[in-house]
Amino acid sequence: APVRRYLPELIKLVFDGKINPGKVFDLALPLDQVAEGYRAMDERRAIKTLLRPNGTK
């Protein structure tokens, strides 16, 4: 699927509160643990990882 085509619209819907990205991601990590997020997906411990800027919930 051409995901990039829909990305601007999807981001707007997330920021407008119309889409809850928490329903898509099954692992959330701080941004400084990006390598662990990729490792978890590679090892099939996670399907989608949400990376949060440091200090945000």
Architecture overview:
This protein has 57 residues and is α+β, with helices and mostly antiparallel strands. The chain has a domain at 20-57. Helices cover 39% and strands 14% of the residues. Helix 2 links the parallel strand 1 (27-30) and strand 2.
Q: Mean pLDDT, as a whole number?
A: 88
Distance between the termini: 30 Å
| Unreliable stretches | none
> Count of helices?
2
Return the structural class. Answer: alpha+beta
Number of strands: 2
User: What Rg is obtained from the alpha carbons, in whole angstroms?
Assistant: 13 Å
Order of helices and strands: HEHE
* Major sheet summary line: 2 strands, parallel
* Helix content, binned percent: 25-40%
Strand content: 5-15%
